[in-house]
Amino acid sequence: MNNETTMIEPITLTNTEQRLIDSSKGDYQLLSSNAIQQIQPNQPIILTLDGNALFATGYRELLLNQAQNQNLADKPILWGLGYPDTTLFNARRLNDYTPTGSAHLHELIERQLPKPMDKKITLVGHSLGGLFALQALSLCVKNNDCPYEQIYIASPSLWWQDEQIVKELDNWLSLAKKNPKNLPKITLTIGGLEQTPNPHDDEKRQNLLKQRKMLDHAKWLSQKLTAYHIQHDFIIFDNLRHHETADATLKLAIQRYFDKP
């Protein structure tokens, strides 16, 4: 029997780069589909939250689209913002993505991420990240200016803190009718099965799906955006559940860049 220790080499993705972003609230990990120093100012950036969980899926989709559209100018760059560990979902997101602590992360994205960041940024947030994306929209409304070209609000967790956002949304968006300009393109997505209990789930999980009302909340949010004259696409992925919607939304954000005329 061989008792020698085998060194395990980490898997790397060709031409990608990762950086640590220093922060007083803890470090963040930025994953990039290209070497950051080689990114051109005219290249759009798709920035997804929960980078630990979603970057690999998005990177595959990006490469597939690039292979089919080799002559496309200004190919998008994928960035995944996550945390310097190997877990899919770090507990810090409970603070970073929700109104209790998200101001720090909004500022970090706008001021501390590497350039170029010239308003050619698409933000993708899912679940609690969807709350963060909705907050980003509210800041765009409030400031009548926006660092984002597009925002994807995927399966937003409007159930959070006894539906606090549901109660406060009118205050968040009240200026939209007065300042309809300079708003990003908004896409709201939800899985059609997100509040449908799975027969394989235990009773607690089934009740949780019903209580959180993900699909109902998304429909309500779409109606609110319409009422405040905020143009948006509302997409229901009929046969998808919660986590599947994250992958589908990120893939959609990437595909749309390659589908542009």
Describe the overall structure.
The chain has 261 residues and is of the alpha/beta class. The protein has one domain (17-259): Alpha/Beta hydrolase fold, catalytic domain (Rossmann fold, 3-Layer(aba) Sandwich), CATH 3.40.50. Helix content is 40%, strand content 17%. It contains eight helices and eight strands; from the N terminus they run E-E-E-H-E-H-H-E-H-E-H-E-H-H-E-H. It has an eight-stranded mixed sheet with strand order 1-2-4-3-5-6-7-8, with helices on both faces. Strand 1 (17-21) and strand 2 form a beta hairpin. It is globular and about 55 Å long. The termini are far apart. The mean pLDDT is 90.
Essential attributes:
single chain; 261 residues; alpha/beta; Rossmann fold; 8-stranded mixed sheet; 8 helices; globular
